[in-house]
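Box 4.2: Ligand-aware structure prediction
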Amino acid sequence: MHPLQFRYKSKFFKEEILAQQAKGVLDVFENFFNENEFDYVIEIGTSFGGLSLFLYEQSLNHNFKFITYDWFGFKDGEWSNRLDKLKQAWGGELKFDFRDKNVFEESTIDEIASILKNNKCLLLCDGGDKPKEIQTYSEYLQDGSYIMGHDYAPTIDYFHENIKTKIWNWLELQDSDFEETMKKHNLHKSKKHYDKFRRFVWACLVKGED
Ligand SMILES: C[S@@+](CC[C@H](N)C(=O)[O-])C[C@H]1O[C@@H](n2cnc3c(N)ncnc32)[C@H](O)[C@@H]1O
């Protein structure tokens, strides 16, 4: 495990599951869920399931539906056993709604788009191509829904000055990746939450105003 990441300890069992996230981010999410109600929270990119496990627990506390997507075909299946530890800890079966699907395949886009169009949602883009995930899914969001992207810094300079080696070592998303999408689909940086999430390398965007 990289020292900037952490393992999440569930209340359900003693094993800890890797969350590929910066330390401290869960408090920001908890506050966010205390202040905002959702019908659905959808995560793109399950990986080992550490963040998914936390989000699943939040879904029980806050009464939203939670779905997490990963695609076992990614990297020719090299990462397809990453959920095994969590599965075992749960006695052989995942308790959350996990879907093994490529989020850029037409049928998956249709499936997620129909949820986004009909519900207040938070869509977390943490898969293999964060810019493309935001560009693909923004148009389907309802007013008041949120879309967030991970491994984010506003610019490369900001990343080198404030983030790298201190908070997080990976940059996969910056403002220039979604500026056009924001204009096209009426997205804004969340007035209430953008700054708090930016510290933990998430871009927090809302459709319309929050
Ligand atoms: C950075 S990891 C996710 C980390 C996880 N959210 C966490 O916080 O621990 C990215 C994941 O995206 C998945 N992925 C890559 N391309 C994908 C695609 N086209 N559709 C669905 N999942 C994809 C990879 O298999 C990988 O597990």
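In the box above, the bound molecule is S-adenosylmethionine. The chain is about 35% helix and 20% strand.
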